[in-house]
Amino acid sequence: MSHIRWKKSLFASIALALALTTAACGGQSKQNEGAQGAAEETQEVQKLRLGYLNVMDDAQTILAHRAGLYEKHGLDVEMQLFSSGTDLIKAIVGGQLDAGVLGFSNALSWLDKGADLKIVGGAQMGYHSMLVEQDSGIASVDQLKGKSVASQSQGSTADIVLNGVVWKQAGLAREEVTMQYVSPAVAIQSLASGKVDGAFVFEPYASIAKMTYPVKEIYEIGQQWPFPCMVVIASGDIVKNNQAAVYSMLDAQKEAIDMLESDPATAAKHITDDFITEDTLTKLDGSTVAAEAVIQASIESQQFNWEITEQDIGRMDEVAQFMVEQGILTAKPDVTTALDLSWQEQQAE
After folding, report:
1. Closest Cα to residue 60, out of 277, 275, 258, 298?
2. Which residues on adjacent β-strands are paired with residue 316?
3. What's the pLDDT score for residue 238?
4. I want to staple 150 with a disulfide (CB 3.0 to 4.6 A). Which of 185, 196, 244, 258 is the partner?
């Protein structure tokens, strides 16, 4: 197939994906068991307003909803879709939402402004893949010197770690690469059309491109520099005044994460329609690949984790320093003040 046909085919497959947004992933606690018991006696359920993005980073939020896990854990959840992490966290700060899963750098930015927020659980370890064309001759990140790369907007988590980690590991200064800040879909289209030499994207865009078109991955930050990109962020109000609902939400999301990690095929059956509108995608040779297979591969490429470890907190601290160096934060915060890990602590009891 000619390069031109690949471009047209790629555009068609990207169009099949829904308008994805950019963010941008055990048993019940003892206290929650009591809370659910009381709810059953009074025939009441806890209500919760959750925000989410249509990105694989939010897979456990979407899966918990689609698989009925929130209801299983005694919650009546109102799911609200947002087009960006910025809009989502503004809704939490403004009181329109109770919680959501998004990049922890968002919480640090708003805590820097005095917002009342808490990081209450883990979600997804950072995943961003640097893709180049198969026949580009580019085999490593350092070879992008003097070239162009498409990625998410300045100040996003992707941009923070791209500048704070990826370029530094490759021995590059950020000024040595020409950046285009676009959505993941546009990043892949720009790579296909030759407008850029690399695309730094998250899932499922990386899997869609790798499974159907002549692109190759030369770097993935989750393999080289693991960090807790996505976390569960809740308003200070609900953490203080309705801890039982927060714990039920985290119980449901933990069960969803367990499914994503142990049974990605079943998880993919529940959430594929949220990401790809058609049953199949057309490959370069004209054959097709099932949409569920693409989403399963996307799930398997990542690590979901409900726990925030001491090592994770150390990474958060490093990212906070990057944010200061990049002018996003006015001063480096004590990231532990942003954490409320009481639910997680009960899991170990």
Report:
1. 258
2. none
3. 96
4. 196
